[in-house]
Amino acid sequence: LTIRNRFFDHWFPILVHIACLLPIPWLLLDAWQGNLSADPIRASIIRTGKIALVLLVLSLMCSPLNNIFGFKPALRVRRALGDYAFMYVCLHFAIFVSLDYGFNIQYISAELLRRPYALVGLVTGLLLIPLAITSFPPWPKRLGKNWKRLHSLVYVIAVLDALHFILSVKQGVAEPYLWLILVLFLLVLRIPSIRRFLSGYFTHTE
Amino acid sequence: LVVPWKYGFKSIKAIIKIELVNYQPATLWMLAAPDEYGFYANVNPNVDHPRWSQATERRIGEIGRRKTLLFNGYEKEIASLYAGMDLTKDF
Q1: Closest-approach residue (CA) in chain A for B51
Q2: Cβ-based contacts of B64 with chain A (< 8 Å)
Q3: pTM of the full structure
């Protein structure tokens, strides 16, 4: 048991950091080798957005993993997952603004304000900014109780993120709906009575 | 099938048979998403898809966008086909 604990205390967070950074060399390698479809700019926008969504969902899994299954190390990587999600959102937006739209403010603002998928994406990204900033010390201590309140915004953000995905694909594509269901499921796990029931069921020692 | 003034819209991927009919047939995307796709599927920067714009395009290999031309720039050649039609309704 002590070996396991040492693994989770020491190596697990490091492995998570490495895993979160790997998509960048992977994307660059694919771009270099021409593996990003006939439209590499679009493909990299989609890829970075997808990775951000995956990391955001993983960050939402941390609390239930701890509360329900008693997997404490999850809490040690929760912030990293959220911050890396934000990093990929920034990359996603940066590619959209630069490579896709060539910094044409007129086209960009028309798209962001008039297209539902873009507007929802913009709001989602903007809401993430205060969370990313206040995820580092001294903010958690300084904000105290309000920190938790502020960071429960992530529940809204995750739903908006799935909605952004739904709005940006053609009709008949099921995948974004599956992500929405997963997000909603992770939110349901946080309802106190459900959480208590499940944690009693899975961790008898508590 | 590449029809120059419709290129960029949903296009025919394979022709199995050709039938001449005296009515306007439905198309796959008209049936799948009638609010988003019509029969004509013309490239028209002035008529947006309900969820995204077709006012601009990024050509493969280029960085940044350019304005999309009406009928992909074939207005002179084919605009007469749609003379008198309201293209916001017949999109």
Answers
A1: A115
A2: 100-104
A3: 0.90
